[in-house]
Structure formats: structure tokens, C-alpha cells
């Protein structure tokens, strides 16, 4: 897998999957083009995304809720934001329920992921995924796509946590434990304190953090390009 | 594995953002359903410290609400218009003045902004009148609206503040011709069951006769009742036009100690209003209190009347009287007590050997007292004053009055600016010398004294003496730019309690922790500004609203500026009265330390508007005098 990533860029892999992928929501997603890495980052559309899950193990745990908000023209479009629950197969472990507050009762009335996923994929078309510690969202989403559509999910990704690490390094500041948590990072940019662990609020929180971080990466001669922001291109 | 599960979605929940909107003006004016929908109309933007907000160069495409951070707003000349903080709005239709268009903005801190498109603002305005009001007008109008909204009469009681006096006229005027005899007049009064009658010649008011006149001038003097009524009537009694507000009429009667007031209209006499007509509408009536004061011969009894002032303030606060009228009414009681004390002193010490005038200074002079305050007064004596012969008389007189005032709750002035102090009880020439020194050698102490003694009003005694000193002082200051510059500097020494980020600046620690001093930081700055304008314009006006009216015409300040300051003063004073009334009702002494927590969101916001007006005008003044 890692050799794949190394040898082929995102678009090449997208074409590779498209060669034999059957019709369906994931194919439609792959038929839209990815923003190219050399584009001015401001011309690109993003989707700030957050999942609440039953745990952090992508092989065992499940997505419970999905929240997202598009970013266009350096502004979060709350009118196009969305939030929905997805019904897990297994019971929700208590250890995660205390964090996100989603109980079995609530979740059992939700749609299964199969029905929720097309909506999310539609919103991701031609956009860059933005999340704080994006590996979680990326891997859970990819795992779900493999299970449901038989193919993995790929997309250009901005990880606000990774951006934060870069900013710390560029300023030669030591990173202490907890410094990179979403709420801690937001405080540094004078962003308001939000209640955590609601997928939509966390998605908005990550989106705002991305806007903030981007303003702190502007001090260069050449305009920043998408590839200056992303961890996966 | 096939999973078949029923499906559902959850509505978008942006409660967090909705709650923030609901807590901030003007969004707090929206109904619940509109508020719930509003977050989905927003866009979120982030601006780094020191960057320009909105690259499009137009702030008119959106209404911006500051979620966190701070923003400076400039006009096209790059002059700062406002510093805004969390919860403040700017941009589309939020502009403060028609001639000061918001041109560009800079983030002072890292700032998160919610923006609402112009079309959406228009749509909301169309459907929600309360919300629309915020955008309809400039700060001044918003303040005026705040005052109106705050002073809406809630009780069924007739509101003397807004009722024209003609509505209190009970019946057609009872009149008699000047050729009638005293006897005929008394017969007619008896038949008509009135306590006073108007003497009219050809529809014009010539005089007035009251029950009391018949008793004092006829019966007590054993006068022949067949004499013409003109023998005993009061000629050309003071009268008011029928469109005068009832409270002004009440005030007029309180000041002149009269109980019967003829009311005129363009065609002649409209009728008569008596003190009783007015007191029917107000239980703790000022007229009643003032006339009561004039009946008292003992200080203890006057004290009892003065003790009712807090109740009076509460009543007026409940009736939502305007701050201006409260100031006039309460001050009229102080004036009455002062005058009565002087009458009693003269009865005791004999008539004054030379002319003098008793002058009120400070808030009493300006007719701006609320709950009882310190006494500020002085005495100007004719130059015929010979200290070897007259010193004792005037010292005794001043001591009697100042002690009496103190006993009535007007405590001795801590700065000793009272007639009881030898320095402030001097002949005219000495007073002229004082003013000359203060004006020619402005140093901190002089400036402090001038700010007290330039607010002067005659309460009792010689009008001519008062006119001489007042005109002398004005003559010395008019066009004296050096002195005015010092006064202007002095006027900036009290700042409105509003911070860089449009937050309230509160007292930290001590007895008044987490409050602001509404007198020194709210009212005094406006009073000081008005004094400088007024001196520069060479105006005799003393009351702050009067001063602002005068200077608005004279061009010392723009008429919008003066108008906005008037509204700011009225609103701040109104809140102070409500605050003091609340304390009095709770059995606590009235003070000037207000906590923003006791204000509604609406009041807080308008108070900030008011303070911003003061700050803007202070900045303008400092530029004008190049400080």
C-alpha cells in the first residue's frame, strides 16, 4: 500500500480504481476530479469532516455520526453543513457513549451506514477533506467503502493536527503533551470554546482551525498551493 | 453479511451558534423559529491579527458579527470610527452615522466572524420589525428609540411627562370683567364653586383672584367689598400655553410657589389648572412638597419633607419619568429648601444690610440632581459690603442655611465649596478677581474650581449681582482659546467606562468590585463636554441639555453630535435613576455604582452606544484643541 502511494499520485490511483469499478455512489465520487496539488489553495473547495465512532480501531469500531461543513472562498458555509447518525451493527460500548453521548436507543433509529454514505460521498466530490487528526476519518471512511463498495476511499486530505505540528516546528517551539488537541490548538488562535464530541460542532471546529492556520502560513512570496497544505496529495 | 436497518437522519443542530446569536443584539430581537434557522444562513470567516477584513473593499455585502476577537472600523479618510469586540456587528446597514461610512476594517486580534449576506439581512428585516429597527437608523436614533422604549408608560396613571396641560383642564374658564366689584367677584366664585377666577378684558387675561386673596387682601384688611376687583387682583399672572407638558406646568408652579395656573391658547384663555388637578395624578407630588416646604418654620419639619425625596425618586422611576424632568423636579425641591432657609434666616437675623445673591453651583445649578447629593453653593455680596460691620451678619446667614441644608440631608461639600466657607462668601469684586485668576492662570486646582463655579444659578437674592458676575465670567472666557484648551483637557479627564474592545471597564476589588461609576465616568464626561462647548460659544445656559441645544445652533459642535450627546445623557441618567430607585426600594442608600449584570442585554448595548458617542465626542474635542 505504501509503495502504491509512493509510486502513483492520487489522480493515477483514482483512474486505476475507475477502470473496473461498478456503478454506484463510490464510482460517481471517483468520476469527479480531484483538485490538483498546484492550485492556489484559496481556489479549492474543502469539506471539514468529523466522525463520532464507537472507538479508535478501524477494524473493529464503527461510525456513529457524521458531521461536515463545506469551505469555499475561505469561509465556512454553515447553510450547507450536515449532520446525521449512522446505525452501528454492534452495541455501543459504554466507554465511547460517555464521550459522544450517543446511546443505543438513539442510534437504533438511525440509518445504516450504507444509506448514509452516498450523501457523504456526494459532498466530498471535487473537494479536499479537512479533519483534525484526519487519519481517523480517512481510515474509517476507506474501511467503510471497502466493506460496502469493495474499493477503498482516497482523497486529498488536510490534517489540521499535522499543520499544527508544522507550525510548531517552523517556530521552533517544543510540543508538549496535549498541545495538539483540537481545543488546545483553537485557544492559540483565539477561537471560541465549543462543546466537544458532536460530529458537526467538531467538524466546524476543525474547519475554523484550518482557516486560522492558513492565515498563519501566508507569509511567503509565492501564493500557497494546495500541496503546501495537504498531507495526502 | 447483510444488514437491513431502518434509517433516519438528525436535523442540523447548530445550537451553539444559535445561542450565541440569541445572546446578542440585534439578533436577540428575532423570534425563536427565525433564530433556529439563522445559523444556516451564516458563513464563518477567520482574520488574523492586523489583517484587513473583507478583501472586496466593500463592507456592504455582508453584516458581520464578531464571535471572538476585536475589530477596528475606519472611514474613508482612515479615521477610526469604532473599536468593536465580541458580539458587536458591523458592515451592511450597521453603519453608525450617515456621514461616517464604514470603509474598511482591521482585525485587532485574531478574529472569528459570522457573516450574513445583505440579501438575508433584508429578508429578516422585512419579516421582523424589531430586528429591522436596529438597521433603520444611526446611533442617535437607536438611542432615542431606546429611550422611548424604556420610558413607555406602563401604569394607567396619566403620564405628566407626555401629557399636554390642556388635557388636564377640567372646565371652561370662569372669568369676570375688570369692572366688576370685589363683592360681585366673590359671588361669582361662590356660585361657580371655584377657588380662583380669571379677570379678563376683551378675551385677554388681565389678572387673577384666588380665595386666599379674598381672605388676605380683603377680609383681613377689612377692605370695602364694593371696590373694583382690580384693587386686589394679581396683575398679569404667569400663565402657560396649552401645549406645555403637564410636568413643565407642575415645575413652573413648584418654582414660583403658585397653585393656580391660567392656561392660554392662541385665541386667548383656555382654562385654569390648579395644583390639585396635578396632584390627583401624582401622589408624592413635587408641587405639594415644595409648597409644604414654604409652610415650614422649623428645620425639623423641612427635614421630614426632604426625607420624602427618595420616595419621590422611586415614584418617578416607576412612572418612567424622563431623567431631565426628574432632575428639574428634584432640584426644585432643593431650591425650595434653600430659599425657605434663607427666608427663615432673614426673619431671624433681620433684612440684609447690603444686597447679596445666593448661588447654587454644580448639579443643583444645572437642575440635574437625583437622589440627594452634597451641597455646592456660594454667596456674592454687593461691593458696599464692609467686613467690619457686615461680616457677622453674612457669616450667620450662611451658617444657618448650610447647617439647615446639611440637616435636610444635603451633606457638607467635602471640598468645602459652600457659602459657609469664608472664601466663597465674598463681595462681587473679590469674585471677579477669583474668575480672573482662574481664567488667566489655569492650573489644576483652578480648573477644578471653574468646573464647579461655571455652573452657577441664582437661587435667592439679587438678580443684578448674579448677572454681573455671570457676564463677567463669560466675557473673560469667550474666545480665550488658551483657557478653553485647558478646560477641554480637563473635560477629558473622566473617560467613559468602555474598553478598547467595547467592553465595560469595571472597578476591580474593594467595596464597589465589578461595577462602574455611572456619575464620574458616565455623566460627568458629558457635562464637562457641554460646559466647554457652552463656554466657547459664550452661552449663559447652565443645564447640560440646554447647553447642548445652544451649542448645536452655534456650530461649536455638529448638531448631530449635540443631539447624540443629549440622547446619551438622557439614557445614562435614566439608567442611573432606575438604579437608584432599585436601591432605595431595597432599603439601601442610593449610589452611583452600577453593575452591568443588573442591566438587560438591550440596556447594555445601548449604554455601550451611549458611551461610544461620548468617546467619539471627546476625541473630536481633543482634536479641536490639538491635545
Protein model, in words:
The complex is a heterodimer of chains A (233) and B (627). In chain A, strands 1, 2, 3, 4, 5, 6 and 7 form a seven-stranded mixed sheet that branches. The two termini of chain A are 15 Å apart. In chain A, helix 3 (25-31) packs parallel to helix 6 (113-124), helix 8 packs parallel to helix 10 and helix 9 packs parallel to helix 10. Chain A has 233 residues and is α/β, with parallel strands linked by helices. The radius of gyration of chain A is 18 Å and the shape is globular. Chain A has one domain (2-229): Ribonuclease H-like superfamily/Ribonuclease H (Nucleotidyltransferase, domain 5). Chain A has helices spanning 2-7, 10-20, 25-31, 94-100, 104-108, 113-124, 135-149, 160-170, 182-188, 199-215, 226-229, and strands at residues 46-53, 63-72, 75-77, 82-87, 111-112, 128-131, 157-159. Chain A has eleven helices and seven strands. In chain A, 44% of the residues lie in helices and 15% in strands. Chain B folds into three domains: 15-136, Jelly Rolls (Sandwich), CATH 2.60.120; 165-281, CBS-domain; 299-624, no CATH class. Chain B contains 23 helices and 21 strands. Chain B is globular and about 90 Å long. Chain B starts with 14 loop residues before the first helix and ends with a helix. Mean pLDDT of chain B is 82; it is low at 1-12 and 149-158. The A-B interface holds A 65, 74-79, 81-85, 87, 89, 109-112, 114-116, 189-192, 194-195, 198, 200-201, 204, 207-208, 211-212, 215-216, 218 and B 1, 3-14, 16-17, 20, 39-48, 51, 67-69, 109-112, 115. Strand 3 (75-77) of chain A pairs antiparallel with strand 1 of chain B.
Amino acid at each position: 500500500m505504501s509503495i502504491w502511494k509512493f509510486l502513483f499520485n492520487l489522480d493515477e490511483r483514482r483512474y486505476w480504481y475507475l477502470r473496473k469499478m461498478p456503478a454506484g455512489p463510490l464510482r460517481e465520487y471517483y468520476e469527479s476530479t480531484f483538485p490538483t496539488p498546484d492550485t492556489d489553495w484559496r481556489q479549492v473547495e474543502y469539506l471539514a469532516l468529523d466522525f463520532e465512532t464507537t472507538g479508535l480501531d478501524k477494524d473493529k469500531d464503527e461510525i456513529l455520526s457524521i458531521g461536515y461543513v463545506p469551505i469555499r472562498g475561505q469561509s465556512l458555509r454553515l447553510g450547507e453543513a450536515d449532520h446525521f447518525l449512522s446505525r452501528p451493527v454492534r452495541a455501543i460500548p459504554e466507554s465511547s457513549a460517555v464521550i459522544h453521548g450517543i446511546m443505543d436507543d438513539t442510534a437504533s433509529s438511525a440509518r445504516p451506514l450504507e444509506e448514509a454514505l452516498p450523501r457523504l460521498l456526494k459532498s466530498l466530490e471535487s473537494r479536499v477533506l479537512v479533519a483534525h487528526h484526519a487519519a481517523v476519518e480517512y481510515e474509517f471512511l476507506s474501511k467503510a467503502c471497502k466493506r460496502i463498495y469493495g474499493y477503498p476511499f482516497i482523497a486529498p486530505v488536510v490534517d489540521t493536527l499535522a499543520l499544527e505540528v508544522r507550525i510548531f516546528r517552523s517556530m521552533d517551539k517544543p510540543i508538549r503533551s496535549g498541545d495538539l488537541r483540537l481545543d488546545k490548538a483553537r485557544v492559540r488562535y483565539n477561537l471560541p470554546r465549543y462543546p466537544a464530541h458532536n460530529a458537526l460542532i467538531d467538524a466546524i471546529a476543525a474547519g475554523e482551525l484550518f482557516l486560522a492556520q492558513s492565515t498563519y502560513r501566508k507569509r511567503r512570496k509565492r501564493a500557497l498551493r494546495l500541496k503546501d497544505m495537504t498531507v495526502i496529495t | 453479511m447483510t444488514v437491513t436497518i431502518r434509517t433516519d437522519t438528525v436535523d442540523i443542530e447548530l445550537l451553539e451558534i444559535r445561542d450565541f446569536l440569541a445572546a446578542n443584539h440585534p439578533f436577540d430581537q428575532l423570534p425563536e423559529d427565525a433564530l433556529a434557522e439563522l445559523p444556516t444562513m451564516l458563513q464563518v470567516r477567520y482574520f488574523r491579527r492586523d489583517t484587513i477584513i473583507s478583501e472586496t473593499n466593500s463592507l456592504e455585502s455582508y453584516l458581520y458579527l464578531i464571535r471572538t476577537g476585536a475589530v477596528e472600523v475606519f472611514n474613508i479618510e482612515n479615521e477610526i470610527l469604532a473599536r468593536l469586540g465580541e458580539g458587536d456587528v458591523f458592515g451592511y446597514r450597521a453603519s453608525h452615522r450617515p456621514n461616517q461610512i464604514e470603509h474598511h476594517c482591521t482585525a485587532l486580534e485574531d478574529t472569528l466572524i459570522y457573516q450574513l449576506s445583505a440579501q438575508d439581512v433584508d429578508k429578516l428585516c422585512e419579516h421582523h420589525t424589531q430586528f429591522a429597527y436596529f438597521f433603520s437608523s444611526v446611533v442617535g436614533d437607536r438611542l432615542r428609540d431606546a429611550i422611548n422604549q424604556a420610558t413607555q408608560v406602563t401604569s394607567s396613571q396619566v403620564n405628566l411627562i407626555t401629557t399636554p396641560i390642556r388635557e388636564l383642564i377640567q372646565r371652561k374658564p370662569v372669568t369676570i370683567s375688570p369692572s366688576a366689584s370685589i363683592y360681585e367677584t366673590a359671588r361669582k366664585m361662590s356660585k361657580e364653586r371655584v377657588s380662583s377666577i380669571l379677570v379678563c378684558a376683551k378675551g385677554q387675561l388681565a389678572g387673577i383672584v384666588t380665595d386666599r386673596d379674598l381672605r388676605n387682601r380683603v377680609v383681613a384688611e377689612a377692605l370695602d367689598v364694593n371696590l373694583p376687583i382690580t384693587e386686589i387682583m394679581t396683575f398679569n399672572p404667569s400663565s402657560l400655553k396649552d401645549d406645555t407638558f403637564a410636568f413643565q406646568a407642575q415645575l413652573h408652579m413648584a418654582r414660583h410657589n403658585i397653585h393656580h395656573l391660567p392656561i392660554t391658547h392662541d385665541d386667548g384663555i383656555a382654562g385654569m389648572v390648579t395644583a390639585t388637578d396635578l396632584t390627583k395624578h401624582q401622589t408624592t407630588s413635587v408641587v405639594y412638597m415644595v409648597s409644604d416646604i414654604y409652610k415650614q418654620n422649623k428645620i425639623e419639619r423641612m427635614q421630614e419633607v426632604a426625607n420624602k425625596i427618595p420616595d419621590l425618586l422611586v415614584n418617578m422611576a416607576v412612572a418612567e419619568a424622563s431623567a431631565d424632568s426628574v432632575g428639574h423636579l428634584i432640584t426644585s425641591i432643593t431650591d425650595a429648601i434653600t430659599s425657605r432657609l434663607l427666608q427663615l434666616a432673614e426673619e431671624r437675623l433681620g433684612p440684609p444690610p447690603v444686597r447679596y445673591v445666593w448661588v447654587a453651583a454644580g448639579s443643583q445649578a444645572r437642575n440635574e440632581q437625583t437622589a440627594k447629593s452634597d451641597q455646592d453653593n456660594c454667596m456674592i455680596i454687593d461691593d458696599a459690603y464692609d467686613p467690619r460691620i457686615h461680616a457677622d451678619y453674612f457669616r450667620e446667614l450662611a451658617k444657618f442655611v448650610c447647617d439647615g441644608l446639611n440637616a435636610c440631608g444635603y451633606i457638607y461639600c467635602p471640598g468645602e465649596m459652600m457659602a459657609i466657607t469664608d472664601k466663597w462668601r465674598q463681595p462681587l469684586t473679590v469674585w471677579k478677581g477669583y474668575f480672573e485668576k482662574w481664567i488667566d492662570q489655569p492650573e489644576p486646582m483652578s480648573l477644578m474650581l471653574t468646573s464647579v463655579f461655571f455652573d452657577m444659578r441664582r437661587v435667592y437674592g439679587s438678580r443684578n449681582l448674579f448677572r454681573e458676575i455671570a457676564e463677567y465670567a463669560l466675557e473673560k472666557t469667550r474666545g480665550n482659546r488658551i483657557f478653553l484648551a485647558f478646560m477641554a483637557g480637563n473635560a477629558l479627564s473622566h473617560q467613559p467606562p468602555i474598553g478598547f474592545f467595547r467592553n465595560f471597564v469595571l472597578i476591580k476589588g474593594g467595596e464597589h468590585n465589578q461595577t462602574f461609576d455611572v456619575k464620574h465616568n458616565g455623566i460627568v464626561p458629558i457635562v464637562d463636554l457641554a460646559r466647554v462647548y457652552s463656554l466657547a460659544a459664550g452661552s449663559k445656559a447652565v443645564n447640560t441639555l440646554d447647553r447642548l441645544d445652544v451649542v448645536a445652533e452655534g456650530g461649536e459642535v455638529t448638531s448631530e453630535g449635540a443631539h447624540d450627546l443629549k440622547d446619551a445623557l438622557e439614557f445614562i441618567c435614566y439608567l442611573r435613576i432606575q438604579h437608584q430607585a432599585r436601591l432605595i426600594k431595597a432599603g439601601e442608600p442610593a449610589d452611583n455604582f452600577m453593575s452591568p449584570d443588573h442591566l438587560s442585554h438591550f440596556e447594555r448595548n445601548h449604554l455601550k452606544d451611549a458611551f461610544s458617542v461620548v468617546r467619539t465626542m471627546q476625541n473630536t474635542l481633543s482634536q479641536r484643541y490639538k491635545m
